[in-house]
Amino acid sequence: MSSHSVPRATLGPPLHGGDVRAPAEVFESIFEVFLVLGTLVGVVVVVYTLYHAVTYRATDGADPYADSVERPELGELPTGGAGGRKVFLSLGISAVIVLSLIGWTYMELSYIEDGPSIEGEEDLRITVEGYQFGWTFVYPNGYESTTLRVPRNRVVRLDVTSRDVFHNFGIPAFRVKADAIPGQTTAAWFTHDETGTYEAQCYELCGSAHSMMTAEVEVVSQDAYREWYRGTDEETANATAAGNQTAPGTATPTENVTDTPTANATGGEPA
């Protein structure tokens, strides 16, 4: 076992137990709410329109309500309708519904922006570096990989950046997406409760091989991730130790310094 410390967040058990709402779940809930309400409003409008089209249709070119309905003349404002109460009631209800949707959607998107905060759990933070035309993932212990491997039921925070041009890192299955800009870092996060292999893509046109700029995303069990991360931890520590060793045959600075005193300029005894 390497002496290099392993962050508790990468090896500990999943503390949230899958009860954290993933970005995919939040976006799907927003879509479903707007789909249901949009469908309901559409049905009401269509039914209301068809009802009046049939009820007040003209028969044989004659207006059946010519005598019973008071119609405004050209240039005259319409009257009736209970003094406009129906109009104000419909506008008021519509305003309440729309403002409620705006407020609810804002809170949902704020959750996506900030991410969950779980008492006692440290998030797994991974740096994502884009380049033409691939991705590199840097783990907390310094290990680099072209495959993003994460444990299930763990909040994973991504620090996304680029080495060269503008890119955009996205995992469609997780509904996560972030700009990769040279010299800047964009934050994103996700969590997933099912093991499997997924695909990350670049969503910013970045060159001739843009369409091939993909990477594998593996979601594994906590035990499998623990075992894998320990191996990378030891590998990183060994690579660091090897890099700190002096190459064979290379003299150190002290080996080139003589211990013999140098004679003074007059040829006398050494100084």
From TrEMBL:
> Key word Metal-binding present in the record?
yes
Q: Which NCBIfam families match?
A: CoxB (TIGR02866)
Task: List, as start-end ranges, the regions of compositional bias called Low complexity.
Answer: 237-254
Question: According to its UniProt record, what is one Pfam family this protein matches?
Answer: COX2
Which superkingdom, per the lineage? Archaea
Q: Where is this region: Disordered?
A: 236-271
GO BP, one annotated term: ATP synthesis coupled electron transport
Tell me the compartments it is located in.
Membrane
Name recorded for this polypeptide: Cytochrome c oxidase subunit II
Q: Give membrane topology per the record.
A: Multi-pass membrane protein
Q: Name one GO cellular component term.
A: membrane
List the keywords (alphabetical).
Copper, Electron transport, Membrane, Metal-binding, Respiratory chain, Transmembrane, Transmembrane helix, Transport
Q: Spell out the molecular function terms from Gene Ontology.
A: copper ion binding; cytochrome-c oxidase activity; oxidoreductase activity
Q: Which gene encodes it?
A: coxB
Q: Which stretches make up the Cytochrome oxidase subunit II copper A binding domain?
A: 121-231
Concerning its family, UniProt says: Belongs to the cytochrome c oxidase subunit 2 family.
- Which InterPro entries does this one have? CcO_II, CcO_II-like_C, Copper_CuA, Cupredoxin, Cyt_c_oxidase_su2
Ranges that cross the membrane = 30-51, 87-107
Instruction: Write out the biased-composition intervals (Polar residues).
Output: 255-265
PROSITE patterns in the record: COX2, COX2_CUA
